[in-house]
Amino acid sequence: MAAKEPSWPEAVPVDTTGALESAASRALTVVRPWGTGQALVFRRPYMEPD
Predict the structure, then answer these.
(1) 3-state SS of the chain: helix, strand, coil percent to 5?
(2) What separation in angstroms does the CA of 5 have from each of 1, 8, 29?
């Protein structure tokens, strides 16, 4: 894949040669930097009425 596609500078490598739990923990740390115990809440921005 690396030979055919352009580089992706924001990508974070995850070692999948070891235990599944280790790879999953690393991946979750990258996509959920605030922790797995708290879900991110998306809120709409406040807009003044017309």
Answers:
(1) 25, 0, 75
(2) 6, 9, 25
Record the tokens describing residue 38, joined without a space.
């708290």
CA distance 32 to 14: 14
Q: Which residue has the tokens 């894949």?
A: 1
pTM of the model: 0.50
- Token pair of 26, please? 């690393």
Whether residue 35 contacts residue 23, with contact meaning beta carbons closer than 8 Å, is answered with no
The string of pLDDT tens digits covering residues 1-42 is: 778 888 888 888 899 999 999 998 888 888 877 665 666 667
